[in-house]
Design brief:
Blueprint: H1 3-10, H2 17-22, H3 32-45, H4 61-74, E1 79-83, H5 91-107, E2 111-115, H6 119-125, E3 128-133, E4 138-144, H7 156-168
Parallel strand pairs: 1-2
Antiparallel strand pairs: 3-4
Amino acid sequence: MNSSALRSSAQLPWRSVEKNVALPLETKGLNKQEQDERIKRYLELVGLSDYKDRHPHQLSGGQQQRVAIARALAINPDILFMDEPFAALDAITRMKLQDDTRLLSTKEKKTIIFVTHDIEEAVYLADSIVVLSPNPGRIKSIVDVHMPFERDRTSDDFIHIRDKIFEIFNMKVDRDLEYYI
């Protein structure tokens, strides 16, 4: 799911949230009952059941992202590609959607390829972080994230992995600290 796919829900203001989620199902050959079941299931999964009759312009940015996620999941892909889906959101909404994304991937047993420029977001969401070099984009490093499912953004493990990524980008500043008592 890239940013243009996410914008498409906002570009269809005449379509309700329910019809936005139904959009990719129209070409799948599913009967009306199967479509309705999927729409209901995925709107519930992303917490938007009560918003099914609203239009995208009536939703917050986070809710619009949830519609896009429900629409993508409705076609039951093996892999979900998310290209900076939370970049334009405020910090609290972003963290909530990060939590929801982790739960969704586990509950739905989906592989998610998540593109982000936010190092902490990568550490929080990933099992593995692939660091790319710029122009041309090549794999510079792969960092496995060995942390429990419940992640604490302030834990030593989290900070250690975050710092490892900063080192890969040559952004880690080592400081000799002096302590005075």
